[in-house]
Design goal:
Elements: H1 10-14, H2 17-31, H3 38-41, H4 48-59, H5 65-70, H6 74-80, H7 89-105, H8 112-132, H9 158-161, E1 181-185, E2 190-195, E3 198-206, E4 213-218, E5 221-228, E6 234-239, E7 245-251, E8 258-263, E9 266-273, E10 279-284, E11 287-297, E12 300-307, H10 314-332, E13 338-342
Parallel strand pairs: 12-13
Antiparallel strand pairs: 1-2, 2-3, 3-4, 4-5, 5-6, 6-7, 7-8, 8-9, 9-10, 10-11, 11-12
Helix pairs in contact: 2-4, 2-7, 7-8
Amino acid sequence: MDQSTPIPTPYTYAGGVAKFERLTEVFYDKVLKDEVLEPVFRHMAAEHSRHVAHFLAEVFMGPKYYSDQFGNEALRRMVGKHIGKKLQESQRKRWVELLLQSADEIGLPNDPEFRSVFVGHIEWGTRVALINSQFTENPTSDEDVIPQWGWGEVKGPYEVVGSLFRPKGNAQHPTSISVDMHWKKLSQSGFALYSHDKQVGSMTINFAYGSQAADCLWEEKRFIIRRTGFWKSGVEMEDVSTKDILLTASLKKWYSNRLTVEAFGEQLELKVWNNPMAEWVLEKNENTVLAYGLSTDSGATRVRITAAGSGAHPFFHFFIWYLFFPIAQENGGDDLPFYFQLSQ
């Protein structure tokens, strides 16, 4: 490559704002005729297509038309369009499919590097939108900014490095979590969750009347975990402030050692093993997300926590520890050591 040749921004290379406006015009025309997406966009405002075009243009390092129009609320406004929509993966995939069809139809550059950047952002953005659509409150703040997507922006897994909405120097996403986690007992019914040597959460369990409800705190979010059902074989997690149910778990069959878990718009499965030692494994599509189990080291019992390579949502730690701690205490006492490992 000629080092004297300046490298254009993705926005410029794409063809400027007119190209993005044409892209969204063709795209939303397809959307409103599509049986999967039409119900989602049926009441779309007339200016929505143009707003999305200007948002994409700004993301790909073009003029800040979107930010200039909506000011400090620009990103919060765009993210807010997805809050509470409870979007499904099938809808996300169809959105991507129609947008890429539209890109081909309008002649967006087919240069491999450009398409890598373009598709990379579309995949990233739609997956973040899918996550945000499960929330009832907007997770962005005034500190968050519209990401600038150049020729190479991703720095690691979303669950580890956090959101690109954060300005540089403050990149941690509110729901991301360090993967090295363990619990410490504070009292007969109280526990603290630690990431390395920093306390990041707490759980206090109320054993009154056999309810075994747990009052939990993660960052500034309070939630309750309780047993449900006539035989108290189910579990639910409730946000204290909004009363939203964040997670439910129920036995697949009354005699089963597996629970179906619904959380954050996804379905998982919790498997309970007791041979040779107790282990509770949370899986998604038969892949381990998070597991708590007992192991021995020189005759001493310890808790082994296994997490996927990108870590696990912090609330899953609360969920499994709520169920697992009676077994851990019975076998290892109050000062039970922890061992953390990552799965491949």
